[in-house]
Amino acid sequence: MSRNDKENEQSSSEHSKEPEENKVVLYDLAENIKRYKDVFGEDSDLSVRYMQHENLKMAILFIDSLVEKEIMDQHVIHVLNNQLNDIVSADEEIILSTSKTKKITKHKEVLEHLLQGYSIILFDGYPIAYAAETAGGDRRPVTESSVETVVRGPRESFNESIMTNIGLIRRRVHTPHLQIYKKELGKESKTSVAVLYIKGIAKDNIVEEVISRIDNISIDAVLDSLYIEELIEDPQRYSPFPTIFNSERPDRISAGLLEGRIAIIVDGTPVVLLVPATIGLFLTSNEDYYQRYDISSLMKILRGGAFVLSIILPGLYVALLTYHQEMIPTPLLIAVTGQREGVPFGIAIEVAIMEITFEILREAGIRLPKTVGAAISIVGGLVLGQAAVDAGLVGQGTVIVVALTAISSFTTPSYNIAITARMIRFILLILSSFLGAFGLIFGLIFLLIHLNSLRSFSVPYLAPIVPFHKGDWKDLFIRVPWSHMKERPEEISNNNKNRMENSKVNRQTK
Q1: 3-state DSSP call for residue 102?
Q2: Pairing relation of β-strands 118-123 and 191-198?
Q3: Residue ranges of the domains in the chain?
Q4: What is the CA radius of gyration of the chain?
Q5: Sheet of 129-133, strands arranged across
Q6: From start to end of 139-190, where are the E strands?
Q7: Which secondary-structure segment (H or E) carries 440?
């Protein structure tokens, strides 16, 4: 081994022993490239493009899967080729036509920018590098949401790109007061997270609390917004009720921002979080504001009633038939009990079997391919229900009650709270089977007490019911005309509560 080789090996070993944050870009281009190939591996998607003019030798490093090749070719390589004759040394300011260009000297900065989709320009004989933004690659386009569908309204939904999602909100909220706080979370994933709020509308103390909780997160990776949701929700006892709202629709998140709420966008997921959240937010559909107020009010009342029905109907059915038969009209009681002749199980076990069967079918329908999932859940429910009745395992009334409960649960706009209703339904079913109507009422009272104890970033979960705010009831159980909804929610918005100025429309009659 020659003396120069020994010196290079000794210098590289000395650099490898340095702490990661102290390492700098080396003078030797070949040594730099070897260092980064050692980090990513020889067979990785790290690519190197060499360029040379007279005594100046350079190389462009980039990760194939994270860059937009067209941007790199046109705005980095093509521009450098045109400037080769004018570039004397790397100490000069190199001008590229990309949106962002940074001069960096730290080894750690080079790795971070490579993983963010930047192209890194290294020079032989100079301990500096240039990072040019060329991020791109294949991304899912903006499409219609398959979960939150509407008959009338926008069809756009978020995708996995954080910048695209911010842009979708910017196109709807054209105000310079829309503030964005960005942070990277995850020691290994380096996931970009953005907190959005409208300054002057969102409460400052809530904004500070959200940012503080996000800053305190220390985790190896963040792969979905649920990681953030569980780590920043209010420290309270276990509750099946979600206290952070999520949506795939930009119009829904934009409407929340205009009310004074705060949005949290996580790169790599199309689901955006919205805080603080109250129970009314989960029971409100996007389409309530795209239809006339009278139609929207009817739909809100119908959905609210269906939500309550999906929780209490099986327990009420069991309580009446087991303990309180005198409350059922005699003809109906004779018809129901007559259908149950020969059924070997008690009414509570009968309902529980059908409920569990339906939950299994629903889960199977979600996991199967879309082309067969819906057919399996529908046909399976019909076939199994009819077969169970014909075999004398369950009564016809039980099948009707379970089917009506399931259909009612489908009307709930938010998937999160629909799952919560399914969990509570089984608890009330157990209480009703042992204590009858007393158990059902006891369970509902305990449920209300629990809901009253919940907070979402210090905002009461039952607001504006408890605490009572008369003005916010205009958009709770019904929706009044837009001309009457002139103020933002009391518990959420800052001092800027007016949404609409008092204006008079002059109408001339002929």
Answers
A1: strand
A2: unpaired
A3: 3-133, 162-277, 299-460
A4: 31
A5: 46-53, 56-63, 118-123, 129-133, 101-104
A6: 178-185
A7: helix 437-453
Distance CA 397, CA 318 (A): 11
Place of tokens 């109250």: 278
Residue 245, beta-bridge partner list? 274
Q: Which residues contact 273 (CB under 8 A, 6 or more apart)?
A: 225, 228, 229, 244, 245, 246, 263, 264, 265, 266
How many helices (H) and strands (E) would you count in the chain? 17, 12
Burial pattern 129-149, b for ≥16 Cβ within 10 A else e, equals bbbbbbbeeeeeebeebeebe
pTM over 0.70: yes
Helix (H, G, I), strand (E, B) or coil at 195: strand
Distance of CA 66 to the CA centre of its chain: 23
| Look-up of token digits 């790169």 | 267
DSSP 442-458: HHHHHHHHHHHH-EETT
Which is nearest to 253 in space by CA: 198, 177, 292, 302?
Answer: 198
Hey, is 292 helix, strand or coil? coil
Cα 172 to the center of its chain, rounded Å: 19
CA distances to 28, 30, 348, 507 from 3, rounded to whole Å, are 17, 18, 87, 95
- Pairwise CA distance, residues 144 & 432, whole Å: 42
Using one digit for the tens of pLDDT, what is the confidence trace for 76-86?
Answer: 888 888 776 66
Predicted confidence (pLDDT) per residue in 36-54, tens digit: 888 888 778 888 998 887 7
